[in-house]
Specification:
Blueprint (H helix, E strand, L loop, with lengths): L1 H16 L4 H8 L3 H9 L6 H9 L4 H6 L12 H12 L2 H18 L9
Helix pairs in contact: 1-3, 2-3
GO molecular function, one term: DNA binding
Pfam family, one: HTH_3
InterPro entries: Cro/C1-type_HTH, Lambda_DNA-bd_dom_sf
Length: 119
């Protein structure tokens, strides 16, 4: 029941993000305002056709199901990352191997695993 309630809350967030009232959205999806209200309250779960209609209006379906939104700049590298990548690409094969070894060793340390602890 909790998952349906969360989904309903996310439906409401997305509807408001689109600037629509329950009545407006219900009409666009071919249902009654009362039914849309039940979806938002988590009484019922909308079927695929309703979700697809909502998606067609601009709703973020990934957010509806997961609660996560993609970062606007998720594919952009920071200045340090760009510099590291540039240096890596300009390095010799041996230097690249060393850079990768250091990065992997550091990653293991950060998650609490050292080379001696790995079985």
């Amino acid at each position: 029941m909790e998952n349906i309630s969360l989904f309903g809350s996310r439906l409401k967030v997305e509807r408001k993000k689109l600037g629509l009232t329950q009545s407006q959205l219900a009409e666009k999806c071919g249902i009654t305002r009362e039914m849309w209200g039940k979806y938002e309250r988590g009484v019922f779960m909308p079927n695929c056709e309703i979700i697809f209609s909502f998606y067609g209006l601009g709703a973020d379906v990934n957010f509806l199901f997961t609660g996560n939104r993609p970062s606007e700049n998720s594919n952009e590298l920071s200045k340090d990352e760009l510099e590291l990548l540039q240096n890596y690409r300009q390095s010799t094969d041996k230097s690249r191997e060393i850079i990768l070894t250091i990065a992997k060793t550091q990653e293991k340390k950060e998650v609490g695993i050292t080379a001696g602890e790995v079985a």
